[in-house]
Amino acid sequence: MMARPIPAFIPALAPPLLLIGAWQAASATGLFPAQVLVPPSEVMRTLASLAVNGELSAHLGQSLFRLVFGFAIGATAGLAFGAALALSKWIEALFSPLFLAVRQVPVLAFVPVLVLLLGIEEGFKITIVAVAAFFPVALATFDGVRGVPKAWFEVARVYRTPLVPFVARILVPATVPPVLTGLRIALTRAWLVLVAAELLAADSGIGQMMEMGRQMFRIDVVLAGVIVSGLIGFALDRGAKWIERRATRWRTA
Amino acid sequence: MSMLLKRPPARIAIGLVVPVLILFWWQAQSQAGGARALAFVPLGSVATAFAELAGSGQLLDDALATLSRAVTGLLLGGIAGVTLGVVMATSRLVDRLVGPLYHAIRQVPLLGWLPLIGLWLGNGDGAKLLIVSLAAFYPTVLNSYEGITHVEKRYLDVGRIYGFTSVQRFRLILLPAALPLILTGVTQALAFAWIATIGTEILLGSGSGLGAAMGLAQAQQRMDVILVAILVTALLGFTLNDLFARLRGHLLRWQGASA
């Protein structure tokens, strides 16, 4: 047991490299037609050329614009709705049955409805992203605010804390951890739904790039899209987790 | 006033206010005519569409197709997922080899695989089932891995004292201790599989199923049919979740007071 342990990343890298090697070898044998399997080197070349000719950044820019815009709307609405639902018994009684019923519907099932209502333009894509973000954020905010101990409200009442300091110094810090988790889940879900919506109806975006690749039997373009959408998904999740850790540092300290 | 909120019948009535208002607004929109009437179908025609679809057996066929796809995918993906999760948690080698690959593949948005799988398998049932199984696979791997790795060490120590074989150790200690988390994974898998089923059916739009019916109705601009399909989807999804929650409660009944 005196030998130094192998750094964790070396065995971690081995299987993906092996897989890529086997993939390259399999496509080199010519066993599969190019519409079925293209070598990874070809995918990388396509990815590089898409990046150089600006096509990739145009698609990516469109997708990220829709994601940020739709997410901002959906998350803001979710925060406001969730907090209102948790703070007012009347709002809860009025809206929670409807909210719980609508939540049973998978977000993607709203796609046909929204297409008929809004067409397939930008408005539709931003709305579906907003809807996807709304539900997890509203739910997390509701749970977060409800989770604040009753005693804290009572202490605030005894001290006659005005509303603004009460919200800023008690309510917000107490609800930040669950709400951030909700926001992170919402972000991942919004990205999934956006890619799906772009596959279905779009003239630009990463999803549309993949769908075009499929229609033209360009498996290299499809795989390039898979890699890019995976990287974006990874970056979104990691970024959100980083913010979550930073914002909740005081808890463990 | 707040006494009113405590009485159940009053609560139900209050909860119905907003939905009823929305229905009235919708009905008013449908009678306003013009371009909007296309999207805002009169409520009566939704009921007619429901009766028509239910009467012809179309609705039942679609519901059964969607249900069987979701359940088959859940079984395939769930069994594969629990197996991989357990193996990864018990074998360091497999964990090191497969873990990074699993986490890399998981980053791709689920439906982003559709164009690729469409090229490989076409848009038939195979492609849909693969996506649904994948949806069920991810959360079950993660949760069964967590479940096995977090089994309390003292349970394993007891097993060692009793001289358990590795099969006994797995069957009598690891599996029961990890069961709550494994079932959490299956609960998530059920929700994801349901969403993935509807999503792939809408996106691939071939064959039968509630999602395919929605996609077709969208092309024919039949909002009434879409709404019927959504209603049935929501009810079925809710029922599935509820049934599974009961099953989970039954399987974990031994937890009782300690949980």
Automatic annotation (TrEMBL), chain A:
It is found in: Cell membrane. It is a multi-pass membrane protein. Coiled coil: none annotated. It comes from Sphingomonas oleivorans. The keyword Thylakoid does not apply. The chain crosses the membrane at residues 64-86, 98-120, 126-145, 166-187, 217-236. GO terms for biological process: alkanesulfonate transmembrane transport; cellular response to sulfur starvation. Probably part of an ABC transporter complex. Probably responsible for the translocation of the substrate across the membrane. It comes from the Bacteria. SUPFAM superfamilies: MetI-like. This is ABC transporter permease. InterPro entries: MetI-like, MetI-like_sf. Keywords: Cell membrane, Membrane, Transmembrane, Transmembrane helix, Transport. PROSITE patterns: ABC_TM1. One of its GO terms (cellular component) is plasma membrane. Pfam families: BPD_transp_1 (PF00528).
UniProtKB/TrEMBL annotation, chain B:
The keyword Transport applies. The keyword Ion transport does not apply. GO terms for cellular component: plasma membrane. Gene3D superfamilies: MetI-like. Pfam families: BPD_transp_1. Keywords: Cell membrane, Membrane, Transmembrane, Transmembrane helix, Transport. It is a multi-pass membrane protein. GO terms for biological process: transmembrane transport. Residues 63-244 form the ABC transmembrane type-1 domain. It is found in: Cell membrane. Its main location: membrane. The chain crosses the membrane at residues 70-89, 172-196, 225-244. Belongs to the binding-protein-dependent transport system permease family. This is ABC transporter permease. It comes from Sphingomonas oleivorans. The lineage of its organism: Bacteria, Pseudomonadati, Pseudomonadota, Alphaproteobacteria, Sphingomonadales.
